[in-house]
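testing teh design pipeline on a random one, pls ignore if ur not involved
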């Protein structure tokens, strides 16, 4: 089975590679958020909506650098990952997870965000399996 790749903070890595520890606030406290998007016909569907919702969520969590998560960021990271995973011309499900970098018990040690982009072929709808 071919290797599937992810984008972790700008680095393309095999999906099975460990990227953070149990001490990370995202793992420990769910300190983050995600967006699931669809890439179809060379475009991320409803990109402006997803981008706005992500930025609002990041602001609510007091994460820094929300302005860096713009349309150029989304498109460039997604297209790079689709190429790396040999999914060009296919319908692709995208998951972007943004989470607080580092640890901290009651208060976070940092408000810097980290991110992970994942791409996959969408699973068929249950109603389509009948």
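output:
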């Amino acid at each position: 089975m071919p290797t599937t790749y992810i984008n972790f903070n700008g680095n393309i890595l095999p999906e099975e590679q460990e990227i953070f520890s149990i001490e990370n606030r995202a793992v420990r406290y769910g300190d983050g958020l995600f967006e699931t998007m669809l890439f179809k016909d060379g475009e991320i569907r409803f990109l402006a909506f997803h981008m706005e919702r992500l930025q609002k969520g990041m602001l609510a969590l007091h994460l820094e650098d929300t302005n860096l998560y713009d349309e150029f960021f989304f498109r460039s990271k997604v297209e790079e990952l689709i190429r790396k995973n040999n999914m060009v011309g296919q319908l692709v499900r995208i998951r972007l997870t943004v989470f607080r970098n580092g640890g901290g018990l009651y208060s976070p040690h940092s408000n810097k965000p980290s991110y992970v982009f994942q791409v996959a072929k969408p699973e068929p709808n249950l109603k389509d399996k009948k």
